Amino acid sequence: MRNICKIVFLTLIVGCISVQSDGDVYDYTYENQDNWGDKYEQCGADDPYSPRDIQTALSIPKLERSLVFLKFDLPATVEAYNTGNFIELKFTGLILPQIIFYDVIYTCDKMRIHNRHNGAPSSEHSFDGKKGDMEFQYYCHNEIHGTVAVAVLAKIDLNIKVGVLASLVNIVGNCIVPGVRITAIVQPGIFLNLINRSDFYYYTGCETSPPCQAPITFIVMAGMRGIAQADVDILALLCDANGKQIGTNCRKQNNSHGEIIHVIPQ
């Protein structure tokens, strides 16, 4: 293990950074996702399934209270690493972000970033067939009620010049070595700023990568957040465990099962 401890004057990170070489590298690829079920039984199931295309006209509207986001506006300690498929940030500090969904508190332990490759839009979910350039997924848990995943789709906005993720990836170069962990303190408000809408859709689905944990409630925030071109460009250079640029990190959609609820806050 090697440690780098310094003050980093960047948009996203301030604090002490620790770089370790013992992170997890996942034993699957998205190119062979049709075979995930051979090792991970739940990945071979059609129901429940994620991701999906959110067909807005077919969703069921409900007037409910909005989601409540707790501690998303506070500094957060994270471990960021390239799994060989995507960037994952694990929340490791004493202060963990939480959400309240139907009066139940869920504590978030990680965020995954699914990003654009080879010029093609690369969010996992979509709205009426239209994908974003990136998708952020927060995974949050409650011991009794299980797991809720909150997905935020993002699209390049050329008016945004300073990227929120570029500095994180640049810490160890344009191509993070799979398995290397970076521990850092994230500035207040970064994660809350990624969630920009009050209305949302939800359905019963599953984790979008092995072991495809199910069932979970997948919440997809309405609309798309603007991100900088720099965020997309740098993440597109990530390498897999073989040192090659990652081709894709999005699971195929399946829209054949279950209703989608559109919550319109009162």
Mean pLDDT: 80
> What is the overall number of helices?
4
Give the distance, in angstroms, between the N- and C-terminal Cα atoms: 51 Å
Largest sheet at a glance? 14 strands, mixed
Query: What is the share of helical residues?
Result: under 10%
Q: What is the N-to-C order of secondary-structure elements (H for helix, E for strand)?
A: EEHEEEEEEEEEEEHEHEEHE
Number of strands: 17
Overall outline: globular
Strand pairing plus helix content: what structural class? Answer: mainly beta
Beta-strand portion reads 35-45%
Name the poorly predicted regions.
1-25, 171-175
Q: Kindly provide the radius of gyration, computed on alpha-carbon positions and rounded to a whole number of angstroms.
A: 18 Å
General description of the model:
The chain is mostly beta strands and 266 residues long. The protein contains 4 helices and 17 strands. The longest helix is centred in the C-terminal third of the chain and has 7 residues, at 229-235. It is globular and about 50 Å long.
Produce a short descriptive summary.
It contains four helices and 17 strands.
